[in-house]
Amino acid sequence: MGNTSSMLTQYDIEEVQEHCNHTFSQQEIVSLYQRFCQLDRNGAGFISAEEFLSVPEFAVNPLCQRLLRMVDGLNFKEFVAFLSAFSSRATMQQKIEFIFKVYDTDCNGKVAFNDILDVLRDLTGSFMSEQQRQQVLAHVLEEAGYSKDSLLELADFIKILGNSGLKMEVEVPVD
Amino acid sequence: MDLDRPNIEEYLPSEAIQESNEKLHLRDLLDISPTLTEAAGAIVDDSFTRCFKSNPSEPWNWNVYLFPLWCFGVVVRYGILFPVRVLVLTIGWIIFLSSFIPAHFLLRSHDKWRKKIERYLVELICSFFVASWTGVVKYHGPRPSMRPKQVFVANHTSMIDFIVLEQMTAFAVIMQKHPGWVGLLQSTILESVGCIWFNRAEAKDREIVARKLRDHIQGVDNNPLLIFPEGTCVNNHYTVMFKKGAFELGCTVCPIAIKYNKIFVDAFWNSKKQSFTMHLLHLMTSWAVVCDVWYLEPQNIRPGETPIEFAERVRDIISVRAGLKKVPWDGYLKYSRPSPKHRERKQQRFVESVLQRLEKKGK
Protein backbone atom coordinates (compact mmCIF):
# COMPACT_ATOMS: atom_id res chain seq x y z
CA MET A 1 0.00 0.00 0.00
CA GLY A 2 2.01 2.96 -1.23
CA ASN A 3 5.76 3.31 -1.15
CA THR A 4 7.91 3.12 1.93
CA SER A 5 8.55 6.86 1.91
CA SER A 6 4.95 7.44 2.97
CA MET A 7 6.05 9.25 6.06
CA LEU A 8 4.83 12.78 6.57
CA THR A 9 6.58 14.82 9.20
CA GLN A 10 4.68 17.19 11.45
CA TYR A 11 6.38 20.03 9.59
CA ASP A 12 5.09 18.73 6.24
CA ILE A 13 1.55 18.44 7.58
CA GLU A 14 1.59 21.99 8.89
CA GLU A 15 2.97 23.30 5.63
CA VAL A 16 0.21 21.59 3.67
CA GLN A 17 -2.37 22.87 6.12
CA GLU A 18 -1.11 26.43 5.62
CA HIS A 19 -1.27 26.04 1.88
CA CYS A 20 -4.90 24.94 1.90
CA ASN A 21 -5.90 27.65 4.36
CA HIS A 22 -6.71 25.21 7.13
CA THR A 23 -9.66 23.69 5.29
CA PHE A 24 -8.50 20.24 6.32
CA SER A 25 -7.57 18.96 9.76
CA GLN A 26 -4.20 17.34 10.31
CA GLN A 27 -5.78 13.90 10.51
CA GLU A 28 -7.55 14.48 7.19
CA ILE A 29 -4.26 15.51 5.61
CA VAL A 30 -2.64 12.27 6.78
CA SER A 31 -5.54 10.29 5.29
CA LEU A 32 -5.31 12.24 2.05
CA TYR A 33 -1.60 11.46 1.91
CA GLN A 34 -2.27 7.75 2.24
CA ARG A 35 -4.79 8.05 -0.54
CA PHE A 36 -2.35 10.06 -2.67
CA CYS A 37 0.30 7.35 -2.27
CA GLN A 38 -2.26 4.69 -3.07
CA LEU A 39 -3.20 6.41 -6.35
CA ASP A 40 0.36 7.36 -7.24
CA ARG A 41 1.31 3.80 -8.05
CA ASN A 42 4.65 4.48 -9.69
CA GLY A 43 5.75 6.71 -6.81
CA ALA A 44 6.47 9.64 -9.10
CA GLY A 45 5.35 12.24 -6.56
CA PHE A 46 2.29 13.17 -8.55
CA ILE A 47 -0.77 11.32 -9.84
CA SER A 48 -0.83 10.99 -13.62
CA ALA A 49 -3.98 11.14 -15.73
CA GLU A 50 -3.76 7.37 -16.28
CA GLU A 51 -3.69 6.76 -12.56
CA PHE A 52 -6.74 8.97 -12.02
CA LEU A 53 -8.62 7.23 -14.80
CA SER A 54 -7.92 3.85 -13.24
CA VAL A 55 -10.52 4.77 -10.62
CA PRO A 56 -13.70 3.67 -12.41
CA GLU A 57 -15.93 5.95 -10.34
CA PHE A 58 -13.90 8.91 -11.58
CA ALA A 59 -13.61 7.73 -15.17
CA VAL A 60 -17.39 7.52 -15.63
CA ASN A 61 -17.89 11.12 -14.48
CA PRO A 62 -18.91 13.42 -17.39
CA LEU A 63 -16.58 16.19 -16.17
CA CYS A 64 -13.56 13.96 -15.56
CA GLN A 65 -11.54 15.25 -18.53
CA ARG A 66 -12.08 18.83 -17.43
CA LEU A 67 -11.02 18.04 -13.87
CA LEU A 68 -8.05 16.04 -15.13
CA ARG A 69 -6.70 19.14 -16.80
CA MET A 70 -6.82 20.88 -13.44
CA VAL A 71 -5.45 18.09 -11.28
CA ASP A 72 -2.99 16.28 -13.53
CA GLY A 73 0.59 16.41 -12.32
CA LEU A 74 -0.10 18.18 -9.04
CA ASN A 75 2.14 17.33 -6.11
CA PHE A 76 0.59 16.47 -2.76
CA LYS A 77 0.44 20.03 -1.45
CA GLU A 78 -1.32 21.26 -4.58
CA PHE A 79 -3.54 18.17 -4.56
CA VAL A 80 -4.83 19.06 -1.10
CA ALA A 81 -5.32 22.68 -2.17
CA PHE A 82 -7.32 21.44 -5.15
CA LEU A 83 -9.60 19.40 -2.91
CA SER A 84 -9.95 22.18 -0.34
CA ALA A 85 -13.09 23.51 -2.03
CA PHE A 86 -14.82 20.25 -1.10
CA SER A 87 -14.09 20.47 2.58
CA SER A 88 -16.92 21.25 4.99
CA ARG A 89 -14.74 24.08 6.30
CA ALA A 90 -14.52 25.79 2.92
CA THR A 91 -16.56 28.96 2.50
CA MET A 92 -19.28 29.38 -0.09
CA GLN A 93 -17.00 31.85 -1.83
CA GLN A 94 -14.25 29.21 -2.16
CA LYS A 95 -16.68 26.67 -3.56
CA ILE A 96 -18.09 29.08 -6.14
CA GLU A 97 -14.53 30.09 -7.05
CA PHE A 98 -13.75 26.45 -7.78
CA ILE A 99 -16.82 26.11 -9.99
CA PHE A 100 -15.81 29.30 -11.79
CA LYS A 101 -12.36 27.86 -12.43
CA VAL A 102 -13.89 24.75 -13.97
CA TYR A 103 -15.71 26.93 -16.49
CA ASP A 104 -12.92 29.43 -17.06
CA THR A 105 -10.52 27.13 -18.93
CA ASP A 106 -8.32 29.93 -20.29
CA CYS A 107 -8.09 31.50 -16.83
CA ASN A 108 -8.80 35.03 -17.96
CA GLY A 109 -11.36 35.69 -15.26
CA LYS A 110 -14.26 35.76 -17.72
CA VAL A 111 -16.73 33.06 -18.66
CA ALA A 112 -18.34 33.44 -22.07
CA PHE A 113 -21.38 31.83 -23.66
CA ASN A 114 -19.17 29.26 -25.35
CA ASP A 115 -17.42 28.33 -22.11
CA ILE A 116 -20.75 27.47 -20.51
CA LEU A 117 -21.74 25.67 -23.68
CA ASP A 118 -18.60 23.53 -23.46
CA VAL A 119 -19.45 22.36 -19.96
CA LEU A 120 -23.04 21.75 -20.96
CA ARG A 121 -21.80 19.60 -23.82
CA ASP A 122 -19.80 17.45 -21.38
CA LEU A 123 -22.86 17.02 -19.19
CA THR A 124 -25.34 16.21 -21.95
CA GLY A 125 -23.24 14.30 -24.47
CA SER A 126 -25.15 13.12 -27.50
CA PHE A 127 -28.53 13.33 -25.79
CA MET A 128 -29.03 16.96 -26.75
CA SER A 129 -28.34 18.56 -30.10
CA GLU A 130 -26.00 21.56 -30.33
CA GLN A 131 -28.93 23.69 -31.36
CA GLN A 132 -30.99 22.59 -28.36
CA ARG A 133 -28.13 23.38 -26.00
CA GLN A 134 -27.71 26.87 -27.44
CA GLN A 135 -31.41 27.52 -27.26
CA VAL A 136 -31.77 26.40 -23.65
CA LEU A 137 -28.72 28.35 -22.54
CA ALA A 138 -29.72 31.52 -24.38
CA HIS A 139 -33.20 31.24 -22.89
CA VAL A 140 -32.09 30.95 -19.24
CA LEU A 141 -29.40 33.59 -19.72
CA GLU A 142 -31.91 36.11 -20.98
CA GLU A 143 -34.29 35.31 -18.23
CA ALA A 144 -31.56 36.06 -15.70
CA GLY A 145 -30.82 39.36 -17.29
CA TYR A 146 -27.79 38.44 -19.39
CA SER A 147 -27.30 38.00 -23.10
CA LYS A 148 -25.41 35.66 -25.39
CA ASP A 149 -22.54 38.13 -25.52
CA SER A 150 -22.30 38.66 -21.78
CA LEU A 151 -19.03 37.82 -20.13
CA LEU A 152 -19.66 36.49 -16.64
CA GLU A 153 -17.17 37.17 -13.92
CA LEU A 154 -16.71 35.64 -10.48
CA ALA A 155 -18.98 38.28 -8.97
CA ASP A 156 -21.75 37.24 -11.36
CA PHE A 157 -21.29 33.60 -10.39
CA ILE A 158 -21.52 34.53 -6.73
CA LYS A 159 -24.70 36.46 -7.41
CA ILE A 160 -26.27 33.60 -9.38
CA LEU A 161 -25.18 30.70 -7.21
CA GLY A 162 -24.84 32.39 -3.86
CA ASN A 163 -28.32 31.78 -2.55
CA SER A 164 -29.01 28.50 -4.27
CA GLY A 165 -28.09 26.39 -1.28
CA LEU A 166 -25.04 24.97 -2.98
CA LYS A 167 -23.78 21.77 -1.42
CA MET A 168 -20.37 20.60 -2.47
CA GLU A 169 -18.80 18.52 0.26
CA VAL A 170 -16.74 15.38 0.38
CA GLU A 171 -15.90 13.55 3.57
CA VAL A 172 -12.32 12.47 4.01
CA PRO A 173 -12.33 9.06 5.74
CA VAL A 174 -10.27 9.25 8.91
CA ASP A 175 -9.41 6.20 11.05
CA MET B 1 -7.47 0.27 8.54
CA ASP B 2 -10.75 -0.87 7.10
CA LEU B 3 -12.77 1.84 5.49
CA ASP B 4 -16.21 0.58 6.40
CA ARG B 5 -18.64 3.13 5.11
CA PRO B 6 -21.83 1.19 4.52
CA ASN B 7 -23.62 3.53 2.17
CA ILE B 8 -20.96 3.75 -0.53
CA GLU B 9 -21.29 0.09 -1.40
CA GLU B 10 -24.85 0.61 -2.53
CA TYR B 11 -23.72 2.58 -5.52
CA LEU B 12 -26.56 5.02 -5.77
CA PRO B 13 -26.14 7.26 -8.77
CA SER B 14 -26.68 10.76 -7.50
CA GLU B 15 -28.66 13.24 -9.52
CA ALA B 16 -26.59 15.56 -11.65
CA ILE B 17 -29.08 18.34 -11.33
CA GLN B 18 -30.99 19.40 -8.26
CA GLU B 19 -34.24 17.49 -8.19
CA SER B 20 -36.94 20.07 -8.33
CA ASN B 21 -40.26 20.65 -9.94
CA GLU B 22 -39.50 24.28 -10.56
CA LYS B 23 -38.83 25.97 -13.83
CA LEU B 24 -35.30 25.85 -15.17
CA HIS B 25 -33.13 28.80 -14.18
CA LEU B 26 -29.60 29.86 -15.08
CA ARG B 27 -28.34 28.77 -11.70
CA ASP B 28 -29.52 25.22 -12.36
CA LEU B 29 -27.37 24.99 -15.45
CA LEU B 30 -24.37 26.68 -13.91
CA ASP B 31 -24.50 24.65 -10.71
CA ILE B 32 -22.33 21.66 -11.54
CA SER B 33 -21.66 20.96 -7.86
CA PRO B 34 -23.33 17.49 -7.74
CA THR B 35 -21.20 16.20 -10.61
CA LEU B 36 -18.06 17.77 -9.15
CA THR B 37 -18.83 16.31 -5.74
CA GLU B 38 -19.13 12.84 -7.24
CA ALA B 39 -15.77 13.23 -8.99
CA ALA B 40 -14.04 14.56 -5.89
CA GLY B 41 -15.62 11.77 -3.84
CA ALA B 42 -14.10 9.24 -6.22
CA ILE B 43 -10.69 10.91 -5.96
CA VAL B 44 -10.78 10.82 -2.17
CA ASP B 45 -12.09 7.28 -1.80
CA ASP B 46 -13.65 4.75 -4.15
CA SER B 47 -15.16 1.33 -3.67
CA PHE B 48 -13.21 -0.28 -6.50
CA THR B 49 -9.70 0.44 -5.18
CA ARG B 50 -10.80 -0.76 -1.77
CA CYS B 51 -11.40 -4.25 -3.17
CA PHE B 52 -7.74 -4.70 -3.94
CA LYS B 53 -6.13 -3.21 -0.87
CA SER B 54 -3.90 -5.62 1.02
CA ASN B 55 -3.98 -5.54 4.77
CA PRO B 56 -1.32 -3.13 5.92
CA SER B 57 0.94 -5.01 8.31
CA GLU B 58 0.18 -3.56 11.73
CA PRO B 59 3.44 -2.97 13.55
CA TRP B 60 2.74 -4.41 16.97
CA ASN B 61 6.37 -4.78 17.94
CA TRP B 62 6.76 -1.24 19.11
CA ASN B 63 7.65 -1.55 22.74
CA VAL B 64 10.41 -3.09 24.85
CA TYR B 65 8.46 -6.20 25.79
CA LEU B 66 6.85 -7.02 22.46
CA PHE B 67 9.86 -6.38 20.26
CA PRO B 68 11.95 -9.32 21.52
CA LEU B 69 8.85 -11.50 21.24
CA TRP B 70 8.41 -10.42 17.64
CA CYS B 71 12.10 -11.11 16.92
CA PHE B 72 11.71 -14.54 18.45
CA GLY B 73 8.68 -15.07 16.23
CA VAL B 74 10.69 -14.14 13.14
CA VAL B 75 13.43 -16.55 14.12
CA VAL B 76 10.91 -19.36 14.61
CA ARG B 77 9.08 -18.62 11.37
CA TYR B 78 12.11 -18.26 9.12
CA GLY B 79 14.55 -20.51 10.94
CA ILE B 80 12.39 -23.43 12.04
CA LEU B 81 9.02 -23.42 10.34
CA PHE B 82 10.22 -22.43 6.90
CA PRO B 83 12.88 -25.15 6.49
CA VAL B 84 10.49 -27.78 7.87
CA ARG B 85 7.84 -26.68 5.41
CA VAL B 86 10.25 -26.70 2.49
CA LEU B 87 11.20 -30.22 3.51
CA VAL B 88 7.58 -31.32 3.70
CA LEU B 89 6.89 -29.83 0.29
CA THR B 90 9.97 -31.47 -1.24
CA ILE B 91 8.98 -34.87 0.13
CA GLY B 92 5.50 -34.30 -1.24
CA TRP B 93 6.84 -33.49 -4.70
CA ILE B 94 9.11 -36.53 -4.71
CA ILE B 95 6.25 -38.83 -3.79
CA PHE B 96 4.00 -37.15 -6.30
CA LEU B 97 6.36 -37.17 -9.26
CA SER B 98 7.56 -40.70 -8.63
CA SER B 99 3.97 -41.91 -8.72
CA PHE B 100 2.49 -39.56 -11.28
CA ILE B 101 5.04 -39.95 -14.08
CA PRO B 102 4.96 -43.76 -14.13
CA ALA B 103 1.17 -43.82 -13.82
CA HIS B 104 0.80 -41.31 -16.63
CA PHE B 105 2.93 -43.24 -19.11
CA LEU B 106 2.47 -46.85 -18.07
CA LEU B 107 -1.30 -46.82 -17.68
CA ARG B 108 -1.90 -45.26 -21.08
CA SER B 109 -4.26 -47.99 -22.08
CA HIS B 110 -6.14 -48.26 -18.80
CA ASP B 111 -7.68 -44.80 -18.92
CA LYS B 112 -10.12 -45.23 -16.07
CA TRP B 113 -7.47 -46.38 -13.64
CA ARG B 114 -5.04 -43.74 -14.80
CA LYS B 115 -7.53 -40.99 -14.23
CA LYS B 116 -8.40 -42.28 -10.78
CA ILE B 117 -4.78 -42.44 -9.70
CA GLU B 118 -3.94 -39.04 -11.18
CA ARG B 119 -6.93 -37.50 -9.46
CA TYR B 120 -5.85 -38.95 -6.13
CA LEU B 121 -2.26 -37.80 -6.64
CA VAL B 122 -3.31 -34.24 -7.45
CA GLU B 123 -5.39 -34.16 -4.27
CA LEU B 124 -2.32 -35.46 -2.44
CA ILE B 125 0.11 -32.82 -3.70
CA CYS B 126 -2.41 -30.14 -2.87
CA SER B 127 -2.60 -31.48 0.66
CA PHE B 128 1.17 -31.22 0.83
CA PHE B 129 0.97 -27.62 -0.33
CA VAL B 130 -1.62 -26.81 2.28
CA ALA B 131 0.52 -28.51 4.94
CA SER B 132 3.47 -26.41 3.84
CA TRP B 133 1.64 -23.31 4.98
CA THR B 134 0.26 -25.03 8.05
CA GLY B 135 -3.13 -24.66 6.52
CA VAL B 136 -6.07 -25.17 8.81
CA VAL B 137 -9.10 -25.51 6.59
CA LYS B 138 -12.57 -26.15 7.93
CA TYR B 139 -14.93 -27.55 5.35
CA HIS B 140 -18.62 -27.11 5.93
CA GLY B 141 -21.40 -28.69 3.96
CA PRO B 142 -21.73 -31.74 1.73
CA ARG B 143 -18.66 -32.63 -0.33
CA PRO B 144 -19.00 -32.06 -4.08
CA SER B 145 -20.02 -35.13 -6.01
CA MET B 146 -19.07 -36.14 -9.50
CA ARG B 147 -22.12 -35.56 -11.62
CA PRO B 148 -22.56 -34.14 -15.08
CA LYS B 149 -24.40 -30.88 -15.71
CA GLN B 150 -23.09 -29.09 -12.69
CA VAL B 151 -20.55 -26.34 -12.17
CA PHE B 152 -18.95 -24.98 -9.00
CA VAL B 153 -18.35 -21.29 -8.43
CA ALA B 154 -16.35 -19.65 -5.66
CA ASN B 155 -15.09 -16.23 -4.66
CA HIS B 156 -11.45 -15.61 -5.52
CA THR B 157 -8.70 -14.31 -3.26
CA SER B 158 -5.56 -15.99 -4.52
CA MET B 159 -4.47 -18.95 -6.60
CA ILE B 160 -4.28 -20.88 -3.35
CA ASP B 161 -8.10 -20.97 -3.37
CA PHE B 162 -7.75 -23.59 -6.03
CA ILE B 163 -5.25 -25.61 -3.96
CA VAL B 164 -7.38 -25.38 -0.82
CA LEU B 165 -10.41 -26.68 -2.70
CA GLU B 166 -8.47 -29.20 -4.73
CA GLN B 167 -7.11 -31.06 -1.75
CA MET B 168 -10.66 -32.12 -0.89
CA THR B 169 -11.98 -32.77 -4.39
CA ALA B 170 -10.12 -32.98 -7.67
CA PHE B 171 -11.78 -30.19 -9.59
CA ALA B 172 -11.12 -29.24 -13.16
CA VAL B 173 -10.62 -25.54 -13.13
CA ILE B 174 -10.64 -22.75 -15.65
CA MET B 175 -7.63 -20.53 -15.21
CA GLN B 176 -5.65 -17.76 -16.79
CA LYS B 177 -2.54 -19.21 -18.40
CA HIS B 178 0.48 -18.02 -16.42
CA PRO B 179 4.11 -17.79 -17.43
CA GLY B 180 7.01 -19.48 -15.66
CA TRP B 181 6.91 -22.57 -13.50
CA VAL B 182 3.24 -22.13 -12.77
CA GLY B 183 2.52 -22.34 -16.48
CA LEU B 184 4.57 -25.51 -16.68
CA LEU B 185 2.54 -27.08 -13.90
CA GLN B 186 -0.62 -25.95 -15.62
CA SER B 187 0.25 -27.58 -18.91
CA THR B 188 1.40 -30.85 -17.46
CA ILE B 189 -0.24 -31.84 -14.21
CA LEU B 190 -3.38 -29.77 -14.28
CA GLU B 191 -4.03 -30.92 -17.83
CA SER B 192 -4.64 -34.36 -16.37
CA VAL B 193 -7.51 -33.18 -14.20
CA GLY B 194 -9.06 -31.54 -17.21
CA CYS B 195 -8.30 -27.85 -16.78
CA ILE B 196 -9.31 -25.25 -19.31
CA TRP B 197 -7.16 -22.25 -20.15
CA PHE B 198 -8.13 -18.78 -21.16
CA ASN B 199 -6.25 -15.69 -22.11
CA ARG B 200 -7.71 -12.45 -20.81
CA ALA B 201 -6.01 -10.48 -23.53
CA GLU B 202 -7.70 -12.25 -26.42
CA ALA B 203 -11.22 -11.19 -27.29
CA LYS B 204 -12.10 -14.20 -29.49
CA ASP B 205 -10.94 -16.40 -26.67
CA ARG B 206 -14.25 -16.06 -24.87
CA GLU B 207 -16.21 -18.04 -27.47
CA ILE B 208 -13.65 -20.82 -27.61
CA VAL B 209 -13.66 -21.05 -23.84
CA ALA B 210 -17.45 -21.03 -23.68
CA ARG B 211 -17.52 -23.98 -26.04
CA LYS B 212 -14.91 -25.86 -24.00
CA LEU B 213 -16.94 -25.25 -20.86
CA ARG B 214 -20.08 -26.64 -22.43
CA ASP B 215 -18.26 -29.72 -23.69
CA HIS B 216 -16.74 -30.34 -20.30
CA ILE B 217 -19.90 -30.34 -18.27
CA GLN B 218 -21.62 -32.71 -20.67
CA GLY B 219 -18.99 -35.39 -20.06
CA VAL B 220 -19.93 -37.91 -17.38
CA ASP B 221 -16.39 -38.86 -16.65
CA ASN B 222 -14.97 -35.40 -16.28
CA ASN B 223 -14.00 -33.92 -12.97
CA PRO B 224 -16.44 -31.33 -11.58
CA LEU B 225 -15.67 -27.94 -13.04
CA LEU B 226 -14.65 -25.07 -10.76
CA ILE B 227 -15.01 -21.50 -11.97
CA PHE B 228 -14.06 -18.23 -10.27
CA PRO B 229 -16.60 -15.86 -11.81
CA GLU B 230 -14.99 -12.71 -10.44
CA GLY B 231 -12.23 -13.21 -12.99
CA THR B 232 -9.58 -11.69 -10.73
CA CYS B 233 -8.25 -11.90 -7.18
CA VAL B 234 -10.06 -9.71 -4.65
CA ASN B 235 -8.95 -9.02 -1.10
CA ASN B 236 -11.49 -11.26 0.69
CA HIS B 237 -13.44 -8.32 2.14
CA TYR B 238 -15.45 -7.61 -1.00
CA THR B 239 -16.84 -9.36 -4.03
CA VAL B 240 -16.82 -7.80 -7.48
CA MET B 241 -19.41 -8.55 -10.15
CA PHE B 242 -19.60 -12.13 -11.32
CA LYS B 243 -19.12 -12.79 -15.02
CA LYS B 244 -22.17 -14.44 -16.47
CA GLY B 245 -20.24 -17.11 -18.44
CA ALA B 246 -20.67 -19.75 -15.75
CA PHE B 247 -24.37 -18.98 -15.35
CA GLU B 248 -25.54 -19.40 -18.90
CA LEU B 249 -24.39 -22.99 -19.38
CA GLY B 250 -27.82 -24.35 -18.57
CA CYS B 251 -26.70 -26.42 -15.62
CA THR B 252 -26.84 -26.41 -11.84
CA VAL B 253 -24.51 -23.96 -10.12
CA CYS B 254 -23.10 -25.00 -6.74
CA PRO B 255 -21.74 -21.99 -4.82
CA ILE B 256 -18.68 -22.29 -2.62
CA ALA B 257 -17.73 -19.53 -0.19
CA ILE B 258 -14.15 -19.15 1.04
CA LYS B 259 -13.15 -16.88 3.89
CA TYR B 260 -9.60 -16.51 5.14
CA ASN B 261 -8.87 -15.54 8.71
CA LYS B 262 -6.67 -12.47 8.44
CA ILE B 263 -5.33 -12.68 11.96
CA PHE B 264 -2.87 -15.31 10.85
CA VAL B 265 -1.95 -14.14 7.41
CA ASP B 266 -3.41 -12.04 4.63
CA ALA B 267 -3.96 -14.58 1.89
CA PHE B 268 -4.88 -12.00 -0.75
CA TRP B 269 -2.61 -12.33 -3.77
CA ASN B 270 -2.06 -8.86 -5.14
CA SER B 271 -0.75 -9.96 -8.52
CA LYS B 272 0.34 -6.43 -9.35
CA LYS B 273 2.59 -6.32 -6.32
CA GLN B 274 3.93 -9.89 -6.02
CA SER B 275 4.72 -12.79 -8.23
CA PHE B 276 3.12 -16.08 -7.24
CA THR B 277 6.48 -17.37 -6.01
CA MET B 278 6.84 -14.44 -3.62
CA HIS B 279 3.26 -14.95 -2.51
CA LEU B 280 3.92 -18.60 -1.70
CA LEU B 281 7.10 -17.70 0.18
CA HIS B 282 5.13 -15.13 2.14
CA LEU B 283 2.65 -17.82 3.13
CA MET B 284 5.35 -20.30 3.99
CA THR B 285 7.01 -17.85 6.39
CA SER B 286 3.79 -16.96 8.19
CA TRP B 287 2.31 -18.78 11.11
CA ALA B 288 -0.65 -20.41 9.43
CA VAL B 289 -3.28 -20.09 6.75
CA VAL B 290 -6.64 -20.47 8.41
CA CYS B 291 -9.77 -20.49 6.36
CA ASP B 292 -13.35 -21.67 6.17
CA VAL B 293 -14.87 -23.28 3.12
CA TRP B 294 -18.62 -23.57 2.82
CA TYR B 295 -20.20 -25.78 0.18
CA LEU B 296 -23.57 -24.17 -0.33
CA GLU B 297 -26.88 -25.37 -1.71
CA PRO B 298 -26.89 -25.91 -5.48
CA GLN B 299 -28.85 -23.30 -7.40
CA ASN B 300 -30.70 -23.43 -10.67
CA ILE B 301 -31.73 -20.57 -12.87
CA ARG B 302 -35.31 -19.57 -12.13
CA PRO B 303 -37.87 -19.16 -14.92
CA GLY B 304 -37.73 -15.62 -16.21
CA GLU B 305 -34.36 -14.95 -14.62
CA THR B 306 -31.58 -13.68 -16.86
CA PRO B 307 -28.05 -15.15 -16.47
CA ILE B 308 -26.88 -11.84 -15.03
CA GLU B 309 -29.62 -11.86 -12.38
CA PHE B 310 -28.77 -15.48 -11.63
CA ALA B 311 -25.08 -14.53 -11.24
CA GLU B 312 -25.99 -11.71 -8.88
CA ARG B 313 -28.23 -13.98 -6.83
CA VAL B 314 -25.43 -16.53 -6.40
CA ARG B 315 -22.95 -13.74 -5.61
CA ASP B 316 -25.32 -12.61 -2.90
CA ILE B 317 -25.49 -16.12 -1.42
CA ILE B 318 -21.71 -16.41 -1.36
CA SER B 319 -21.14 -12.88 -0.03
CA VAL B 320 -23.60 -13.33 2.82
CA ARG B 321 -22.10 -16.68 3.84
CA ALA B 322 -18.50 -15.43 3.81
CA GLY B 323 -19.29 -11.99 5.23
CA LEU B 324 -18.12 -10.07 2.16
CA LYS B 325 -19.45 -6.76 0.87
CA LYS B 326 -20.66 -6.51 -2.69
CA VAL B 327 -19.47 -3.80 -5.04
CA PRO B 328 -21.03 -3.08 -8.44
CA TRP B 329 -17.76 -3.13 -10.36
CA ASP B 330 -16.41 -5.54 -12.94
CA GLY B 331 -13.10 -7.06 -11.79
CA TYR B 332 -11.63 -6.55 -15.25
CA LEU B 333 -11.66 -2.78 -14.64
CA LYS B 334 -8.27 -3.53 -13.09
CA TYR B 335 -7.01 -3.88 -16.63
CA SER B 336 -9.28 -1.63 -18.67
CA ARG B 337 -11.44 1.48 -18.58
CA PRO B 338 -15.16 1.41 -17.83
CA SER B 339 -17.39 1.35 -20.87
CA PRO B 340 -18.73 4.74 -22.03
CA LYS B 341 -22.30 3.65 -21.46
CA HIS B 342 -22.04 4.44 -17.73
CA ARG B 343 -21.20 8.04 -18.51
CA GLU B 344 -23.86 8.14 -21.19
CA ARG B 345 -26.47 7.03 -18.72
CA LYS B 346 -25.58 9.95 -16.44
CA GLN B 347 -25.73 12.34 -19.37
CA GLN B 348 -29.09 11.02 -20.41
CA ARG B 349 -30.54 11.49 -16.92
CA PHE B 350 -29.25 15.05 -16.81
CA VAL B 351 -30.82 15.87 -20.17
CA GLU B 352 -34.15 14.35 -19.16
CA SER B 353 -34.19 16.45 -16.01
CA VAL B 354 -33.33 19.65 -17.88
CA LEU B 355 -35.94 19.10 -20.59
CA GLN B 356 -38.58 18.23 -18.05
CA ARG B 357 -37.96 21.41 -16.07
CA LEU B 358 -37.89 23.47 -19.22
CA GLU B 359 -41.51 22.57 -19.77
CA LYS B 360 -42.59 23.96 -16.43
CA LYS B 361 -44.14 27.37 -16.27
CA GLY B 362 -44.04 29.64 -13.29
CA LYS B 363 -41.43 31.61 -11.41
Automatic annotation (TrEMBL), chain A:
GO terms for molecular function: calcium ion binding. Coiled coil: none annotated. The keyword Calcium applies. Residues 27-62, 91-126 form the EF-hand domain. The keyword Ribosomal protein does not apply. It comes from the Eukaryota. Keywords: Calcium. This is Calcineurin subunit B. It comes from Nelumbo nucifera.
Automatic annotation (TrEMBL), chain B:
CDD domains: LPLAT_LPCAT1-like. It is found in: Membrane. Pathway: Lipid metabolism. Residues 150-261 form the Phospholipid/glycerol acyltransferase domain. Its main location: membrane. One of its GO terms (cellular component) is membrane. The chain crosses the membrane at residues 62-80, 86-107, 119-139. Pfam families: Acyltransferase. GO terms for molecular function: O-acyltransferase activity. It comes from the Eukaryota. PANTHER family: GLYCEROL-3-PHOSPHATE ACYLTRANSFERASE 4, ISOFORM D-RELATED, PHOSPHOLIPID ACYLTRANSFERASE. Belongs to the 1-acyl-sn-glycerol-3-phosphate acyltransferase family. This is Glycerol-3-phosphate acyltransferase 3-like. It comes from Nelumbo nucifera.
